[in-house]
Amino acid sequence: MADRRQVLRIGAAAAAAPALAGTMAAPALARPGEKAAQAGAVLAGTGRKAAPLIVGHRGASGYRPEHTLAAYELAARMGADYMEPDLVITKDGVLVCRHEPEIGGTTDVASRPEFANRKRTVLLDGVSVTGWWTHDFTLAELKTLRATERIPAIRQQNTLYDGRFEVPTFQEVLDLRKRLSKELDRDLGVFPETKHPTYFKNLGLALEGPLVRTLRRNGLDRRGAKVFVQSFEAANLRELADRYRVAVPLVFLTGATGGPFNDPRSYADYLTPAGLKELNDFVSGLGPEKTQIIPRKADGTLGTPTSLVRDAHQAGLKVIPYTFRAENSFLPAELRVGTDPSAYGKAIDEQVTFLRTGIDGLFTDNPDVGVLARTLI
């Protein structure tokens, strides 16, 4: 389910969760070159290993339309350690939060006659895609649109909020992080992903500069800041490390198949022992698709864990897989309940099973489930 790379694949806040999460320290990912020194980090005064990170994937997107301030805030209130915005860019160079640069499936743009002529076909990472594109809109124009649920057939309850929320800027997410950190009395993190960085660079709208400037303007490009930057493109991360000299840790995202765009190497090649050693030169962690940790058998049930967690830890890299969701359609066969693909299955059991492999955190659409699961390992 490498849905974080695919194009257009088609509330229940737990009041006690923030207090619970406040007792659990998030592990600090080692900077390149520090190897595994921090892999066995312990919580001060407890003698326990650092608790796995719970990352609110696109916010609490199991309960609110993804990449909205409402989704990010709910993730924080449910106890997530980090909010995860995907970053794309507008025509006038402003970073905004959307799953993809194509916004026909996540906003009401298709119903807006004034933007009908903006619909067009582009070649996105070698794939022909038709729709509306953030880089064809100024920020002011984008702010007139409203977010909608991306997978309404699965998450019908989220459609209650269609048309209620704006498309947020990255700066607005950082402002929210600052406000909620003070209100909840804990340092909330952000885990931004650069989406299609080569595509945007070829348009003259490179993401790297605006990202680094925004982090530095907010005092967040520094050691110890609760920020990780992630990308599916190794070249993008190497540029952030070598050219921009970012101080925050970098995380290389991988899929179960294929490889980074415009890169001759496959993800599988990067995940060999030699490839992991090379990655340690410029990244601090991996974000693999979860079947790279525990593959599924032909019947859809969970198989035997791979050696990836052990191999990555030996190379000095943390491992934070994606994406954990509660609905049957996303769960292994033995953890589904009933036949309704949108009904909740045994999501807690799945996350506990993965956490017990030694992963350093996970990306989840249901942060409350993740917070509970890590208390059970």
Which SSEs are present, and which pair or pack?
Layout lengths: L16 H5 L31 E5 L11 H9 L4 E3 L1 E4 L5 E3 L22 E5 L2 E5 L7 H4 L27 H15 L4 E2 L2 E2 L2 H6 L5 H10 L11 E3 L2 H9 L7 E5 L12 H4 L2 H7 L5 E4 L19 H7 L3 E2 L27 H9 L5 E4 L2 H8 L3
Parallel strand pairs: 1-2, 1-13, 2-7, 3-8, 9-10, 10-11, 11-12
Antiparallel strand pairs: 3-4, 5-6
Helix pairs in contact: 2-4, 11-12
Describe this structure in words.
The structure is a single chain. This protein is α/β, with parallel strands linked by helices and 377 residues long. The protein is 25% helix and 12% strand. The chain contains 12 helices and 13 strands. The chain has helices at 17-21, 69-77, 139-142, 170-184, 197-202, 208-217, 234-242, 267-270, 273-279, 308-314, 347-355, 367-374; strands at residues 53-57, 82-84, 86-89, 95-97, 120-124, 127-131, 189-190, 193-194, 229-231, 250-254, 285-288, 318-319, 361-364. Strands 7-2-1-13 form a 4-stranded parallel beta sheet, covered by helices on one side. The chain has a 4-stranded parallel beta sheet with strand order 9-10-11-12, covered by helices on one side. Strands 4-3-8 form a 3-stranded mixed beta sheet. Helix 7 (234-242) links the parallel strand 9 (229-231) and strand 10. Helix 2 (69-77) packs parallel to helix 4 (170-184) and helix 11 crosses helix 12. The longest helix has 15 residues, at 170-184. The radius of gyration is 19 Å and the shape is globular. Mean pLDDT is 90; it is low at 1-47.
